[in-house]
Amino acid sequence: MSSQTVHPGVQPRRSYRPRIAGGTRSVDLFFEFSTLGLVLCGYLAMLSTGTLDAPTSAVVCSALFYRAVSLFGLAPQRLPGWLIGALTAVSVALYPADIFWWSGDFIQATVHLIFFLALVKLLSAQGNRDHLALLVLSFLLLVVAAILSSDFLYFVFLLGFLTFSVMSFTSLELRRSLAVHRVVAAGTQRLPLRLTMASLLISGGILVMSLGLFYALPRSAKAILNQFQLQRPLSSGFAREMVLGRYGELTQNPAVVMRIREIALDGSTAAVPFPTHWRGATLSHFDGRRWSNPNQRGELVRINANEIFLASPAQRRRAGVRGGYEVHLSSQLGEFLFLPGLPEFLRIEQGYLFRYPDRTVRLPLAPKEDVQYAAFSFFDGEQELAEGRMASLSATELGAVRGEDLLHLPPLDPRIEELARSVTEGYRNPLDKARILASYLRGNYHYSLGKARAGGKDPLAQFLFETREGHCEYFASALAVMLRTLGIPSRVVTGFLVTEYNPLTGWHVVRMSDAHSWVEVWLPERGWYGFDPTPSSRQLPMSLLVSRLRLWRDAVDTFWQDWVLAYDLGRQLTLAGSAESTSRGAREYTLHALEALSGADARRLAGWASIFGAVAMAMALLWRVWLKRVWMNRRRTLRTRATSDDEASRIYAKALRSLASRGYVKPAWQTSTEFADAVAAFPGMGWLRDFTAAYLSARYGGGEEALDRLRRLAPQRASVPRR
Predict the structure, then answer these.
(1) For 366-506, where are the alpha helices, taking DSSP H only?
(2) Is it the case that residue 502 has pLDDT exceeding 70?
(3) Domain for residue 113, yes or no?
(4) What crossing angle do the helices spanning 128-148 and 24-48 adopt, rounded to 10°?
(5) Are 344 and 378 in contact (CB under 8 A)?
């Protein structure tokens, strides 16, 4: 039998290693929330592009919410392994079906797969390797969003991703150190707050350096990125046809699709009001439900030096007023260019374009990036017809369109012609008939933001005699059809109604919800006149706060488009020139101000400056003395507490080593109080209870009295007999 008797609760002698106190749970929780923030930033970046479908958005949002709840201990943190494996296998197996059937697009299906794998990994992550995989998947989502997005919000999510990345890496290093019992910091009070502040400072430094490089280097890979850019679905309202009922989808979309700014023209004899109706395409064929233009043939023309004349020399010499406009057009609107009045001149960075007899213009292919152009248009001076509120002339000749095409009608409800004749009874002039019909529609029918019903064989008759409400395409179709029943040539125009102006940027803002359609009527010896039969109150009133927020959001987006996405060598030179002129102006202003001062004024100014400087120096000195005293007191307190804690730990550890050499080894799973109670019955060990109480008081209470008591009791370890 061994000479060393083992008492219950006391382990055999072994080397002692103090445990690391606290911090592990805080670091783990901080690390988990950091990785959750990475996935959240990738998700929000993709959501801001508008390409994420509703089911995927709902699934990802639910999974992120579940993960956040589980981190607070309100739900199981990790799903069973068999369920995770089954979900992963199903996602990989359905990937080919997603490419060819559900999404129909390789990039979209890949985004779905990345999202699903990220969520599975988020709900099953255990080790550091799993969390690093989450970082990589989130970064891939951010890269895809960078290709799809041109919005300022992407920069916000990128900054959030950067911050969460720094937080993840710093907490990961702490986590590794704690796992191997290596002390990385003294004390764990407010550790998550300190990690957050450190991460924000590091991210801010990275951002500042990145901004310097960003403005020092103009964009050079724009054309390469455009080759990988996904083509968003074009708006159905601006294709080469218009189906009754489709415009309701556009009125619910507040996305900005065009910005317009007026160009001052030298030598202009008359100021033209800003045109509200901007033409995109004209449609002349109606089959009862759909407007199209199947017989339209355009002329492909070459653009020399980015400039082209759209009107004949005779038209350009015609007396009247003209206006110039700079336009930024979103690529999601397709290939048509939107122009007001009668366009005469166009400046655009393109090689070719199609020009049509109806004075519409389009690009040969749908652009992959936003289009910028400057348009100069003619207005005949009759800007607003009575009750029409329309820029009048678009052209003075009928063009290549045949008259029978502008009078063609499908089989209609006979009540439509009867209504047109009854409303215009007593009027013989085609202009008066067009005016009275447009006024009748505006005054007796209602514009509806809801989804209009287009059922039945004749949706137009249903609108005129049953529902009596609808979108703008119903009003335009009704006016054009009723005019044709009276023998007056007409066609439908699709475009935008521009009414919003942002004084912060100086640009007119056009949203998808501003999509509009109206009617152009051919009047002999007068030309084409525009009529808008839709009631003017098309949108619900908006609160002042929401309106201002929209203006500020648009101002930020405008700056982002001009100085970030379109930042090239020209912008760089402009910025450098502006900075140089500003500094030169400041120097000149200072010199002029000093020269303007007389001798007495200069002496008075110097006296006041001396007094102000002396007061400022005195306040700074007092502040420094006070701040130094507070800081020194704080440091003294912290040093005293740290010294007390360290000395108490050293005394207790030395006592444990001494007891271990005498056969009393403290197990790692026992607390200090439990160990003292377990060995109190042994000869000479009764003092250990008082010694342990003094240690705990000195270690965690920080009392100087407890530390003195601990010092007095420590020498009694030498009187303990060996077992």
Answers:
(1) 414-423, 430-444, 459-462, 472-485
(2) yes
(3) yes
(4) 20
(5) yes
- Do residues 682 and 697 both lie within one domain? yes
Give the count of beta carbons closer than 10 Å to the beta carbon of residue 193. Answer: 10
Q: Are residues 254 and 324 in the same domain?
A: yes
Contact 331, 369 (CB under 8 A): yes
Q: Is the pLDDT of residue 388 over 50?
A: no
DSSP-assigned states of every residue in 242-286? EETTTHHHHTT---EEEEEEEEPPTT-SSPPPPP-EEEEEEE-EE
The helix or strand, by DSSP H or E, that contains position 497, with its residue range, turns out to be strand 490-497
Buried b (16+ CB within 10 A) or exposed e, 365-402: eebeebbebbbbbbbbeebebeebbbbbbbbeebeebe
Question: Domain limits at 573?
Answer: 567-594
- Number of independent structural domains in the chain: 4
For residue 327, list its beta bridge partners.
260, 373
Together in a domain, 313 and 171: no
2 inside domain: no
Give the end of a domain, one of 186, 215, 244.
215
Q: What would the pLDDT profile of 451-486 be if each residue is shown by its tens digit?
A: 555 455 788 999 999 988 888 889 999 999 999 999
Average pLDDT over residues 191-204: 76
Question: Same domain for 271 and 306?
Answer: yes
Backbone angles phi, psi at 438, to 5 degrees: -65, -40
590 and 702 both lie in a single domain: no
- Spatial distance between the Cα atoms of 132 and 125, rounded to a whole number of angstroms: 10
Shared domain for 629 and 711, answered yes or no, is: yes
Q: Give the whole-angstrom CA distance, residue 387 versus residue 532.
A: 9
Question: Tell me, what's the pLDDT at 345?
Answer: 92
**Do residues 424 and 335 share a domain?**
yes
The answer to whether residue 8 sits within a structural domain is no
608 lies in some domain: no
| HEC sequence for 630-652 | HHHHHHHHHHHHHHHHHHHHHHH
Q: Are strands 342-348 and 285-286 parallel, antiparallel or unpaired?
A: unpaired
Q: Which of 394, 404, 365, 377 is nearest to 282 (CA)?
A: 394
Percent of the chain at pLDDT above 90?
11
Query: For 149, what's the count of Cα atoms within 13 Å in the CB-facing half-sphere?
Result: 26
Check whether residue 553 and residue 572 sit in a common domain. no
- DSSP letter string over 117-168? HHHHHHHH--SHHHHHHHHHHHHHHHHHHHHH--STHHHHHHHHHHHHHHHH
Coil, helix or strand for 185? coil
Of 499, 514, 507, 512, residue with least CA distance to 554: 507
